[in-house]
């Protein structure tokens, strides 16, 4: 499990997204509402419906063209990440296409490298799922093909790019997962993780310069230690201190690592733990997860069609699937909050049982998100300081 971060301010509410601030300051989550948010100041009025004439303008036309291509090349989609195993199965079953996933545990940076390295080859990725902090890099490199889905109007404006360069199909909140069989006193807060009893057990999910889950952990730790979206140095210092004390280990948080006991305590997204619990239970482990109240941070991931894709129509069909009902409900099953939650709830497709997999309404309502400018500044702080203070120290 891996990945990256966000580029526009987003709000979570108890039933989803509610009205969003359009100012350049950090947005605050308002009261619960099922309505879609207003567009932020950086957004412009967007089009509706599928927008690629070579593949068609209806889902049926796109699916027909995609079937002619035979498959879609995907990358960096672990089975237990937001229930991608279930979402991929529903895609294959519905459309009869192959959907091979290369390097499931790749980082967002790895995804963009794969596009460059495999350019024009049969196994080049056709669609990507990256942290939004990597979107501008992909755009600058000409790696993204704009695409507006048939469900565009039901996706909140701050979970999509007005030009169709990306859509944020799902999101979650940074959390602490603990193998309670190995760790008798599961930590509940960022402050708890500094205790000597957790020496060698606290696992950040990769390098925050490359992986969004790791970046999110740094931001959350900063918020828990007097930092802000304008200054996450307290978060970097927090992990420097964890390393110095011997509590920190830097590994990819995978199901194998959790099952082996190599990852007793994992810092990862709220939607990544439900998928590994069955295997851990079968292996005899008791597993628990919590969202630390002293440092709340959430983010979405951006999905895009790759420019010059080998299977361009299949790539569009994949984006249609993950933003359609089947994909959205699949994310929900995995504990992620789908972008079209409000539309699904209005249609009566979300049951109270499904909502149990989500963070509590109270937690969601407290989450705020940084502006694009704050994100870029945070990214630079990590780039400049993680190596000398933590990674290479």
Molecular structure report:
The chain is of the alpha/beta class. It has 2 domains: 59-171 and 299-359, D-Maltodextrin-Binding Protein, domain 2 (3-Layer(aba) Sandwich), CATH 3.40.190.10; 173-297 and 374-391, D-Maltodextrin-Binding Protein, domain 2 (3-Layer(aba) Sandwich), CATH 3.40.190.10. Helices cover 34% and strands 13% of the residues. The protein has 14 helices and 11 strands. Helix 1 (59-69) crosses helix 9, helix 2 runs antiparallel to helix 10 (325-333) and helix 5 packs across helix 6. It is globular.
Label the structural class.
alpha/beta
Low-confidence stretches: 2-48
The CATH C-level name of the largest domain is: Alpha Beta
The CATH H-level superfamily of the largest domain is: Periplasmic binding protein-like II
Mind telling me the C-alpha Rg? 20 Å
CATH fold name of the largest domain, please? Answer: D-Maltodextrin-Binding Protein, domain 2
Main sheet summary:
9 strands, mixed
Domains, number: 2
Count of individual beta strands = 11
Identify the overall geometry.
globular
CATH architecture of the largest domain: 3-Layer(aba) Sandwich
Our measurement of the CA-to-CA distance between the termini, rounded to an integer number of angstroms, reads 25 Å
Which whole number gives the mean pLDDT? 86
Q: Percent helix among the residues?
A: 25-40%
Q: If helices are DSSP runs of H or I spanning 4 or more residues, what is the number of helices?
A: 14
Q: Secondary-structure element sequence? A: HEHEHEHEEEHHEHEHEEHHEHHHH
Binned strand content? 5-15%
